[in-house]
Structure formats: structure tokens, C-alpha cells
């Protein structure tokens, strides 16, 4: 039986063996990686940028040749109606359209590569031209037209560029620092221009074929956005099935490119609009409603693409109905708001209404009734200026207050019945209902002659109320008399 130390030694031996295997595998991988890197470097070194054939290889591929041959045959033969009952994905013409869409993208990339080649070669002759003419096809046409000519007044650029740009190009060419190109470089540049123009013509032919088949492949989508836009949407999305599975918010962005405004305002620029802005409906919509119209077009185009992907309506009636719905909605948006109608008076109610009356209602009216002072302040006398709190017509006006007499504000405030009633209740609450006098009153009276005497306040009040001219110290009102010596 092995001891614990022997088992530890065995584990260490196995671990060392595994490490050796891992190290050997790492060495093999490193060797393969070095071989790959060397192969890539060798390919890069073998790639000669002076040779156009090593840069542009699309036209020599078998795929390009086959697709262009099929497109030419299909354009000569016309549309085949015998495949209407076939599933769309199994239709060979639909497969050709999908291949054409992919080929158009490859042609665009190839034109950009050739444009960079032409620009690098022609930069020695006219370095400012690439900043004046941005489009690759226009640049290739201008380069082929100018060639090695230094005096651009002898070159007719009419029809290739707008007149304003032609003038700028002519003025810039007179002050350029470029020199004529050697014959070898010039021949390569002209050859590259011819190849770019050939690719552009092939791309137009492919798009014409796709547009001509849009009425058969996607009749409802073509009815809404047009054949050209429908072909571009299908080509960018990767086919009609992929376009049908795409949400409407993504269909709206197909073909959108961020525009370089060079510091100008972005208020009128449409950043989030792609190929849909080329449709007739979008262009005929007022600028303030174009974003809403774009969202509407994207949603309806998605519905039409889903109908076309299942061959649900080959006649295109569904697309025409959707287009009419879009047109009606846009017209509805442009309608002015309805005029505000005058509100009619309610029908008079001839039946007598139940109104609460009685003492409680009279007291409530008396409590909230307008005072005589407020009535005078609310009135103005004709031809007489009113007085105000700040003078000169400023502040709160006094109305007819004080205009009856000397011009001073005289308001006689009489105690209302409600106030008298409240005062009576307060007196009864404090002194009781027996009529007893307050505990603060005193029976001591101070006079100048008699001094201090005790008197009856109730008898004194009775004498004052009766109107008699009795003396303060009558026999009925005096209880005791204390005379000072």
C-alpha cells in the first residue's frame, strides 16, 4: 500500500507531464500564428497599389459575370408570368433580384476603392480637385475630361458639373501647385476612370432590372413608395422576407446617412430619414409634417411588404388602399381647426323653482348684503371726477363717497340688527338674564360737594331714562349720606 508521500509524488509527476504537453501545444500554435502573420504580410507586400487589377477585382469575378449575364437576358426576355403560383423564395427571378441587390452594394464599394485610387494618382496634378468635386463618378468624369491639360479654359466641363463649380474649378486650376503627370501614371488613371464609369453603368442596369420586376415581386410596396425606392429598401434590408420581418422604425432609417452641415443649423435637416424621403408622397408633404409622414409611410410600407412576402395580393389592391389612406391622413393634418361655434343660451325654465324662505334666509341676506358705503363707492356721478386714495386717479376710487356735502368722507355706521342681537346674547351670557349689574360696577359716587355717598345704580339709570330733571341725590335714590366736614 502506497504511503501519503508516494501519492503526492505521483500527482506531481502527472502535473509536470501535463505542463510539458501544454507547452508543446503552445509552441505549435505560436508557430502556426507566425506562419499566418507571415502569410498576411506576404499578401500585403505582394499587393501592388500601383496596379489597378490588384486593387479592383470585382469585374473579373465569376459571380459578377454570371449575374450581369442573367440581368441582360431577363431584360431582353421580359417578365415571366408563369411563376405566379410559386412560393416567393423558390422563384428563380426573386433569387436573381436578391443577388442583384447584393451585387449593387458590392459595386458601390468597388467604385469607392477605384475613386481612392484615382484620387491618389491625380493628386500630383490637381490636389484641390478632390475637395471641390466630392461624388466619385463626377470626379472620374472630370479627371478623364481634363487629363494632363494645365489650362482649364481649353477644357469644356459643361454638362459634367454645375456652372458655379466649373467656375471655381477653373479659378483654382490657374493657381494650383500641381504638375503634369507622367504618361504611365496618366494611363493608369484614365483606365481607372473608365472602370469606374463601367461599374456605374452596370449598377444602373441592375437597378433598372430590379425596378422593372418590383411590380411582380412586391406590387403593394411598389404602389406605396414607388419601384425605385422599393428596390433600394429591399436591397438594403437583404430581400423582401427580411424587409417584412423588420420593424417600421428600422425601415424608416434604411439608407439614412448623417449629413455634414459644416456648421449650419440642424433645424431643417432630416437626420433620421432614409430612402423614404425620395418618395413622391414625402416630397409633396409640407416640411412641418414630413417627419409624421415618414413614420406613416414606414409603417404602411412594412404592412405592404408583409403582404407581398406571402403573395397575399398580387394585384396590388391592398397597396392602393394603403396609399389612399396615407393621402387622406396627410390631407386631414393640413386642414385648419374647426371654427368655434357660439354657445346657445339654455332653454328658459318656466316652472317655478323651490326656494327656501323664512327667517333664516332673511338673516343670511342681511348678513351678506352690500353696505351703503360700498354702494356709494361703486357709483360715479356724471361729469364729476371721483376722488382716489392716491390722488390723480391713482389707487382705489371712492366713487360718490363724500360728494354730497363738504367733500369729506362721512359714513354713518349704524348698528345692524344682527350686531344688536349678538350684543344682547353676549350680555345675557356674561351677566345672566335677570338684569343684574356687572360685578365691576361700584355703588360709590364721588361728587364735589357731598363727598362720598352710596347710590342705587338702577334707580339712577331709571331716572335718566325717564327724562326728569331730578337731582342726583333724591330721597328715592339715596340710601345713606356721609358728609365731610
The CATH topology of the domain at 49-79 and 86-216 is Helix Hairpins
Main beta-sheet annotation? 3 strands, antiparallel
How would you write the strand order of the largest sheet? 1-2-3
What structural category characterises the helix and strand content? mainly alpha
Helix content: 55-70%
Count up the helices.
Answer: 19
Shape: elongated
Mean pLDDT: 75
- Proportion in β-strands: under 5%
Q: What distance lies between the first and last C-alpha atoms, to the nearest angstrom?
A: 147 Å
Order of helices and strands: HHHHHHHHHHHHHHHHHHEEHE
Low-confidence stretches: 18-30, 32-47, 467-485
Instruction: Using the coordinates above, name the CATH class of the domain at 49-79 and 86-216.
Output: Mainly Alpha
Rg measurement, Å: 53 Å
CATH architect. name of the domain at 49-79 and 86-216: Orthogonal Bundle
Strand tally: 3
Structure explained in plain terms:
With 485 residues, the chain is mainly alpha-helical. The chain has 19 helices and 3 strands. Among the domains are: 49-79 and 86-216, Helix Hairpins; 218-336, Nop domain (Serum Albumin, Chain A, Domain 1, Orthogonal Bundle). Residues 217-335 form the Nop domain.
Keywords, separated by commas or semicolons:
Serum Albumin, Chain A, Domain 1; disordered C terminus; NOSIC; 3-stranded antiparallel β-sheet; RNA binding; Helix Hairpins; mainly alpha; 485 residues
State the gist of this model.
With 485 residues, this protein is mostly helical. The chain has helices spanning 4-46, 52-55, 62-77, 92-122, 129-132, 136-146, 163-174, 183-217, 219-225, 227-237, 240-245, 248-251, 280-284, 290-309, 317-334, 359-367, 372-378, 417-431, 457-466, and strands at residues 444-446, 452-455, 478-481.
Amino acid at each position: 500500500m502506497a504511503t501519503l508521500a508516494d501519492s503526492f509524488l505521483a500527482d506531481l509527476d502527472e502535473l509536470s507531464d501535463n505542463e510539458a504537453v501544454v507547452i508543446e501545444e503552445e509552441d505549435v500554435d505560436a508557430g502556426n500564428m507566425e506562419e499566418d502573420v507571415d502569410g498576411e504580410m506576404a499578401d500585403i507586400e505582394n499587393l501592388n497599389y500601383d496596379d489597378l487589377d490588384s486593387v479592383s477585382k470585382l469585374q473579373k469575378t465569376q459571380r459578377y459575370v454570371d449575374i450581369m449575364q442573367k440581368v441582360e437576358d431577363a431584360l431582353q426576355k421580359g417578365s415571366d408570368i408563369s411563376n405566379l403560383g410559386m412560393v416567393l423564395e423558390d422563384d428563380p427571378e426573386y433569387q436573381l433580384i436578391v443577388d442583384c441587390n447584393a451585387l449593387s452594394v458590392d459595386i458601390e464599394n468597388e467604385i469607392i476603392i477605384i475613386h481612392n485610387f484615382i484620387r491618389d494618382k491625380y493628386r500630383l496634378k490637381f490636389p484641390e480637385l478632390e475637395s471641390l468635386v466630392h461624388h466619385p463618378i463626377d470626379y472620374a468624369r472630370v479627371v478623364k475630361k481634363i487629363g494632363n491639360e494645365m489650362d482649364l479654359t481649353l477644357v469644356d466641363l459643361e454638362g459634367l458639373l454645375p456652372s458655379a463649380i466649373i467656375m471655381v474649378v477653373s479659378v483654382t486650376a490657374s493657381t494650383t501647385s500641381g504638375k503634369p503627370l507622367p504618361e504611365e501614371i496618366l494611363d493608369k488613371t484614365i483606365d481607372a476612370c473608365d472602370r469606374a464609369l463601367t461599374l456605374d453603368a452596370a449598377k444602373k442596369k441592375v437597378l433598372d432590372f430590379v425596378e422593372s420586376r418590383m411590380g411582380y415581386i412586391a406590387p403593394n410596396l411598389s404602389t406605396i413608395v414607388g419601384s425605385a425606392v422599393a428596390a433600394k429598401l429591399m436591397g438594403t434590408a437583404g430581400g423582401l422576407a427580411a424587409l417584412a420581418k423588420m420593424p417600421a422604425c428600422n425601415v424608416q432609417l434604411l439608407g439614412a446617412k448623417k449629413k455634414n452641415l459644416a456648421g449650419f443649423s440642424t433645424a431643417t435637416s432630416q437626420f433620421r430619414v432614409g430612402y423614404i424621403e425620395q418618395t413622391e408622397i414625402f416630397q409633396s408633404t409640407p416640411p412641418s409634417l414630413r417627419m409624421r409622414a415618414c413614420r406613416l409611410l414606414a409603417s404602411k410600407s412594412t404592412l405592404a411588404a408583409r403582404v407581398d412576402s406571402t403573395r397575399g395580393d398580387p394585384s396590388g389592391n391592398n397597396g392602393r388602399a394603403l396609399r389612399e389612406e396615407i393621402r387622406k391622413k396627410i390631407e386631414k393634418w393640413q386642414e385648419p381647426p374647426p371654427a368655434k361655434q357660439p354657445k346657445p343660451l339654455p332653454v328658459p325654465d318656466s316652472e317655478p323653482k323651490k326656494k327656501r324662505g323664512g327667517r333664516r334666509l332673511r338673516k343670511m341676506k342681511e348678513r351678506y348684503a352690500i353696505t351703503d358705503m360700498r354702494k356709494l363707492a361703486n357709483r360715479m356721478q356724471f361729469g364729476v371726477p371721483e376722488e382716489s386714495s392716491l390722488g390723480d386717479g391713482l389707487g382705489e376710487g371712492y366713487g360718490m363717497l363724500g360728494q354730497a356735502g363738504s367733500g369729506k368722507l362721512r359714513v354713518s355706521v349704524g348698528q345692524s340688527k344682527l350686531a344688536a342681537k349678538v350684543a344682547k346674547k353676549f350680555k345675557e351670557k356674561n351677566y345672566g338674564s335677570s338684569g343684574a349689574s356687572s360685578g365691576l360696577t361700584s355703588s360709590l359716587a364721588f361728587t364735589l360737594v357731598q363727598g362720598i355717598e352710596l347710590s342705587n345704580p338702577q334707580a339712577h339709570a331709571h331716572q335718566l331714562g325717564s327724562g326728569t330733571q331730578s337731582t342726583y341725590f333724591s330721597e328715592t335714590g339715596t340710601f345713606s349720606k356721609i358728609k365731610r366736614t
